[in-house]
Amino acid sequence: MAPSKRRPLHNSTGSGSPGSSFRSRGMNFRPNSGVQEDRGGTRPTAPPSSVGAILISMVIHLCKKSLLFEPRLKIVIYCGAIFIVSLIADFIPMPKSYFSRSDNIFNRYFVKWGWGWLLTVTIPWIALTAHTLGCGKRPILVKHLARIVLATAAWLLWTKLFHFIETNHGRCLNTKDLQLQTKTKCLQAGKFWSGFDISGHTFILIYSSLILAEEASSFLGWEGIRDLIMKEEYSRTTNEMSTGMLRNLSDTDLGFLKKAHNVFTPWLRGLFIVMTLQQLLWDIMLVSTILYYHIMIEKFIGGVIAILTWYVTYKWLFKLPKCGLLAPGEGVFRYYEPRESLSIPPSSRLRRSTLNGNTPTFMGMPIRTPQPQSQQQPPQDSNDTFTTRQDSDTISTR
Hints:
Blueprint: H1 18-26, H2 51-67, H3 71-91, H4 105-111, H5 114-133, H6 138-168, E1 170-172, H7 183-188, E2 193-195, H8 200-216, H9 225-237, H10 251-292, H11 296-316, H12 346-352, E3 361-362, E4 365-366, H13 382-393
Antiparallel strand pairs: 1-2, 3-4
Helix pairs in contact: 2-10, 3-10, 3-11, 5-6, 5-8, 5-10, 8-10, 8-11, 9-10
């Protein structure tokens, strides 16, 4: 039986390049050399995300909605709830529940040890972020850790002052014995001591929640550091003038930043989720304190002191250039700018204006939909395209 002739997949038409004619005549398959064609002029892009990475990003996005809630609005809610709800609870008895018992598990093992729980998440968080943003420089790490040291000192100072006021400004009930007019002797005699007990629970719950939000704010734009590193490496490889946020880093610092960011980011994601859960628990216990413990004025003063302490330290002291301390997210480079402070070039403003219209979004990012043929813009030349990309790089956040 004579073998049959195989028909070629590509018919030679006599037109085209000699190389393509040769491939059409002599090869019935597409060669796979494993080497991609070099298309010069294209910037590197991030690798595709896996399903697990997308799910983690969704969880982080939800955590940001809770933990990074607008601080000013959160303070208004705290003060309003303490004043109004506590005032109602002072005159109308609240129904009993598990949280009304002072020996409930959340009060005994979480609130009473609240500052310790706060340190277990904030110290690793500050150490990892400062080590990365400082490119391994120890003075920067020390300046960041000094924030939590100062916050701990403020917590100890206020709690000691609350205890001093409650102990020395009160009286022993149901007795006129002058020897029992100290808290210790009054309680030893089986009597009740009535003093001005500023709510330490309200203070620590609000103060801890605000500290968690401030320290977690350094995670805004953190994922974008990978793109900044990739663009900076591309600019240095191609000897292109860099205008990115990492242009002032040395090659050694850039290599350290790349390694530290890849290693520490998964741990920071886990800590961010734990910080969110802790902040939610503090809010739940604050509601319990408002409903069942202390009188309104004691809780309100404790909350106001917590807010003032947070404001003086995080919103004023840590931002003073002469104080020697660093605010969350500061290091040897900047990687995030709030949207209201961005200066958008005119060439990019028209292109980005569609994001503020009716363009559908998912998790804050626009969903690109194919446009009709009549609405598509004519192709630009390579110089214009490169200029647009370079302009858009100058407004990249963190």
